[in-house]
From TrEMBL:
<dbReference type="GO" id="GO:0000785">
    <property type="term" value="C:chromatin"/>
</dbReference>
<dbReference type="InterPro" id="IPR033333">
    <property type="entry name" value="FANCB"/>
</dbReference>
<dbReference type="GO" id="GO:1905168">
    <property type="term" value="P:positive regulation of double-strand break repair via homologous recombination"/>
</dbReference>
<protein>
    <submittedName>
        <fullName>FA complementation group B</fullName>
    </submittedName>
</protein>
<dbReference type="GO" id="GO:0036297">
    <property type="term" value="P:interstrand cross-link repair"/>
</dbReference>
<dbReference type="GO" id="GO:2000042">
    <property type="term" value="P:negative regulation of double-strand break repair via homologous recombination"/>
</dbReference>
<dbReference type="GO" id="GO:0043240">
    <property type="term" value="C:Fanconi anaemia nuclear complex"/>
</dbReference>
<dbReference type="GO" id="GO:1990414">
    <property type="term" value="P:replication-born double-strand break repair via sister chromatid exchange"/>
</dbReference>
Length: 858
């Protein structure tokens, strides 16, 4: 945080702020104005913090440093905070001057650590006294002016170096990212011969003979002399504070504020003045930036006349002013996370404690040492004027927000209109009606795929192919009302084989008083039930595990059809696609109509998925139908399920739970006994695999399906009204199950679970086979390499004996014998490796055969 020093009436006392604390440095024993030298001077430091409870500054800790110079005069030059290049941490420092005899001046810089211990970081001697332009920069580095030249010394080098640039004054010195330590000041420049033909006036010479430059201390060269401050301001600028820097196209651009001799605060951006504020006092000398939080930034300007003022950065207007001050410090003194300004008045440094001060952030935070604010105008000269400064920015912000809100609302209305028109055009196209959309309405509709105008006929042909007649795929449509749900079912032809991932049944609500269509939120389910009874899979005499796996892996669809036809259990199957939606929102209408739209996604080999749309029909429902009980599903005692549509409605609306039951020690013959005797279930004649529970109470109406895979394992599916009924069924089932029986909840359903299991086993089988292939390939590679080596040796021998043809034939025979020998030995795999690979292959093939057998029985 920014720290500023202060000097009391005694020149041997200075103050600064550091991390919310006020540090008071005092050089004891004697005054610098005394003629006689002091005896063993001591530098004292006191850390003071603000107590929010008592609203006073209290002493936190103290420290001291003994200066062993008995025959010298000492003087505090300055104090502030800089970063040490060894750690990069900002620490307080103090510079002390020691005046010896023969006009020899020695300077040393002390750094104060958190333990209140002083460290002498830099010391050097000069043959003159530093009186003008003393600055301490990060490093630490000391910069000063003597006569017309500038010098600096760093703690890293310990040598005094002169600045090569011909500067007349330096307005700012500091560190810029990627540029290092730089100086900004006025540099004299020579006029060209053409400009010197006429003798300029003194004012013109002062303006055009100097310009602002940015100078690098590391490279000792000028970095930039443009986009800083125009030459017209060079004679009036007295202080500069850099706010931001950036490099654009290898050119340095600077945003800064400057104080002028005309009592102005001016903001410059890339060399162009942007804002000007006329200050309330004369002779401004320094500027500090204060961030009070919430985006409120202020420039706090100090004046030589011991006055100060605050200027809003946003509006560049004076927000507050104060008089008769001795010090202005900016830091987080109360620990709120934002900055405040500490105003010390003239009589506050005459004692060991701060007696007269004020802390404020120009907002809600206000602390004062006075019992009451004796002069409200010191903070806000005119409350009505301050209100006028705050209200306009708020009004502008509100106007911008309202404008954005109106644009967003118009955008949403337009989007809703486009979607409504698109739905209407789509439904008319699906139902085969004439599209009565006007030309003005057509302008609102845009092609979703970026089609050009000449592709309209092609698009119509594609739509005619995608939208198929419902008579080809749909046999029947029905709907039922169960509790608070509306169930719509579509019975498809047996030739259409679908899964839940390939089909979507949608309900589009068509309101009579509105032309818009509303898409209802639905939950889809594909239900497949076999009409023929079949024996348990483990009682079938044929082995189908390996064959089933081969059929599922083959890309030929004819083989799959022939294999499926071999099993009568798969021959006759009823397939129903259902959509369940909430009935409560629909009861707000006396009558409503929904269009049932079936979307089918077909996966063609080598091509992207293709969608087909089928309009299945329309659903009409009214409050009168619900009052008379029409379409309402009930359970008469004599006939549990009168229509098969009621069964499918229950399977769609009820909660489905799937469990895998495993009994390693005993056969699961008691499952059917439990279903038929304990749960009083009745087998549905049309679908023998479904059991309807007629047990009185909450169990009535629950549906079960039991598929026994082996004598010791099977899958039980429970369709219940709610979770409570499901847990009651499981509690009743546990009583009759054998000992050490395991139940596993298959969350994704039996079919998805078995598919994932088979995919996992097939993957393991492929990995094992690939390891076998890699072993064979390794031995084959070794054989080929050895053959190439032998071939190379034979070619060398043949070239050497090319003049003796009678000797070539024996070498060829020898080469053939070597090849046969290597072929017999090098391609053999070790017995241990062979046994390991074959055992792994057998294990994974057995598991994948078993998974394929389970999946084929679904």
């Amino acid at each position: 945080m920014t720290s500023k020093q202060a000097m009391s009436s005694n020149e041997q006392e200075r103050l600064l702020c550091y991390n919310g604390e006020v540090l008071v440095f005092q050089l004891s024993k004697g005054n610098f104005a005394d003629k006689e030298p002091t005896k063993t001077p001591i530098l004292h430091v006191r850390r003071m913090v603000f107590d929010r409870g008592t609203k006073v500054f209290v002493q936190k800790s103290t420290g001291f440093f003994t200066i062993k110079e008995e025959n010298s005069h000492l003087k505090i030059m300055c104090c502030n905070c800089v970063s040490d290049f060894r750690t990069g941490i900002n620490l307080p420092y103090i510079v002390i001057e020691k005046n010896k005899k023969n006009n020899v001046f020695e300077y040393f810089l002390l750094i104060l650590h958190s333990t209140n211990k002083f460290e002498m970081r830099l010391s050097f001697k000069l043959g003159y006294e530093m009186k003008d332009g003393l600055r301490v920069l990060n490093g630490p580095l000391i910069l000063w002016r003597h006569v017309k030249a500038f010098f600096f010394i760093s703690s890293q080098t310990g040598k005094v170096v002169s600045v090569s640039g011909n500067f007349s004054s330096i307005q700012w010195a500091g560190e810029i990212e990627n540029l290092g330590m730089v100086l900004l000041g006025l540099k004299e420049c020579c006029l060209s011969e053409e400009e010197c033909t006429q003798e300029p006036s003194k004012s013109d010479y002062a303006i055009w003979n100097t310009k602002f430059c940015v100078y690098s201390l590391e490279s000792q060269e000028v970095l930039s002399d443009i986009y800083i401050i125009p030459p017209a301001y060079s004679s009036v600028v007295t202080y500069v504070h850099i706010c931001a820097t950036e490099i654009i196209k290898n050119q340095l651009r600077i945003s800064l504020i400057a104080l002028t001799r005309k009592n102005q605060l001016i903001s410059f951006q890339n060399g162009t003045p942007k804002n000007v504020c006329q200050l309330p006092f004369g002779d401004p000398c320094a500027v500090q930036l204060m961030d009070s939080g919430g985006g409120n930034l202020f420039f706090v300007v100090s004046f030589i006349s011991n006055n100060a003022c605050a200027v809003w950065k946003e509006s560049f207007q004076v927000a507050a002013k104060w008089e008769k001050l001795s010090l202005v410090l900016i830091d987080d003194f109360i620990g709120s996370g934002t900055e405040q300004v500490l105003l010390l008045f003239k009589d506050s440094l005459n004692s060991d404690c701060l007696t007269s001060f004020k802390i404020t952030d120009l907002g809600k935070i206000n602390y004062s040492s006075e019992p009451s604010d004796c002069n409200e105008d010191d903070l806000f000269e005119d409350k009505q004027e301050n209100r006028y400064l705050v209200v306009p920015p708020l009004e502008t912000g509100l106007k911008v927000c309202f404008s954005s809100f109106r644009e967003l609302r118009q955008h949403l209305l337009l989007k809703e209109k486009i979607i409504s028109k698109s739905y209407k055009a789509l439904i008319n196209l699906v139902q085969g009606k004439d599209d009565n959309t006007s030309s003005a309405e057509e302008e609102c509709l845009v092609p979703l795929c970026g089609e050009e105008e000449n592709s309209v006929h092609i698009l119509d042909e594609k739509l005619s192919d995608n939208f198929q007649d419902s008579e080809q795929l749909v046999e029947k449509i029905w709907y039922r009302v169960i509790d608070d749900s509306l169930v719509v079912g579509v019975k498809t032809t047996s030739s259409l084989k679908l899964s839940l991932n390939d089909v979507t049944l949608s309900l589009l609500m068509d309101q009579a008083h509105d032309s818009r269509f509303r898409l209802l939120k639905c939950q889809n389910r594909v239900i497949k039930l076999s009409t023929n009874p079949f024996p348990a899979p483990y009682l079938m005499p044929c082995e189908i595990g390996l064959e089933a796996k081969r059929v599922k892996l083959t890309p030929d669809s004819k083989k799959e059809e022939s294999f499926v036809c071999e099993h009568p259990s798969k021959k006759e199957c009823v397939q129903i696609i259902t959509a369940v939606t909430s009935l409560s929102p629909l009861l707000a209408f006396s009558k409503f109509c929904c269009t049932v739209l079936l979307q089918i996604m077909e996966r063609e080999s080598g091509n992207c998925p293709k969608d087909r749309y089928v309009v299945c029909g329309r659903v009409f429902l009214s409050l009168e139908d619900l009052s008379t009980g029409k379409y309402l599903l009930t359970f008469p005692k004599k006939k549990p399920i009168e229509h098969m549509e009621d069964l499918f409605a229950l399977l769609a609306a009820f909660h489905k739970s799937c469990f895998q039951i495993t009994s390693p020690g005993y056969a699961l013959n008691s499952m059917k006994v439990w279903l038929l005797e304990h749960m009083k279930c009745e087998i549905i004649k049309e679908f023998p695999e479904v059991y309807f529970c007629e047990r009185p109470g909450s169990f009535y109406g629950t549906l079960f399906t039991w598929k026994q895979r082996t004598p010791f394992e099977g899958i039980l599916i429970i369709y219940s009204r709610n979770q409570t009924v499901m847990f009651q069924c499981l509690h009743n089932l546990i009583r009759i199950l054998p000992i050490n029986c395991f139940l596993k909840n298959l969350k994704s359903g039996s079919e998805n679970f078995l598919i994932d299991n088979m995919a996992f086993t097939l993957e393991k089988e492929l990995v094992t086979l690939s390891s076998l292939s890699s072993a064979i390939a390794k031995h084959e590679s070794n054989f080929m390499q050895r053959c190439e080596v032998s071939k190379g040796k034979s070619s060398v021998v043949a070239a050497a004996l090319s003049d003796r043809r009678e000797n070539i034939h024996p070498y060829r025979k020898e080469l053939q014998r070597e090849k046969k020998k290597m072929l017999q030995t090098n391609l053999k795999v070790s017995g241990a490796l062979y046994r390991e690979i074959t055992l792994k292959v057998a294990e994974v093939q057995l598991k994948s055969d078993f998974a394929a057998q389970k999946l084929s029985n679904l």
